[in-house]
Amino acid sequence: MTENTNTQPNNTATGTALLVIDVQESFRQRESWQYGSDPEVAGQVAKLTDFARDRGDLVVWVLHSEPGTGTVFDPALGHVRLIEPLAARDGEPVLVKTSHNAFTTTNLQQILTERGIRSLVTCGIRTEQCVETTTRLASDLGYAVTFVVDATATEPIPHPDAPAGRPYAEVLADPRTLRPADVIERTRYALAGRFATVTTVKELTGS
What we know:
Elements (H helix, E strand, L loop, with lengths): L15 E6 L3 H4 L12 H15 L2 E7 L29 E4 L10 H7 L4 E7 L1 H14 L3 E10 L14 H6 L6 H12 L5 E3 L1 H5 L2
Parallel strand pairs: 1-2, 1-4, 2-3, 4-5, 5-6
């Protein structure tokens, strides 16, 4: 499912787009979010959007939806929306995906092609899941990608063999649970020099 906001084709002078991936209220509704790497990641993303707009880059917003599931990603519950005060401006596409990456179930690639975009800046939630997956696919599609690591956030990841449905206190107490800092570091190692240039908000924006 794709929703576009005034996405008439025209070239973006810089040839660069900022992809803001899944920075949505859904995550703030989960108990695990308070234990995430950066519950206030929307502030870092806001710095990137201001920078991109000032440069004349295209800003593309992506939301994740799981219709009919009854989870926080079910649009019927009202949480599939940007974390305030983030908001799309006129002319900035807003896409809704049902896959991990931002390409497969949207018309993202069409929008980028129509706008003459060849370079992407990626940020959002979760670091190792939708943001990393989008970054990898974008690289394979031929885009030059910059991954802004401190404008991403993630949560603790339980061990694959751990029983489902445990109280979250048990997840945190389990020594096999991956901590957010470790998840982010692994993603940085996996992407840097292979799929993307890995940078920080300060390094990219200069402030």
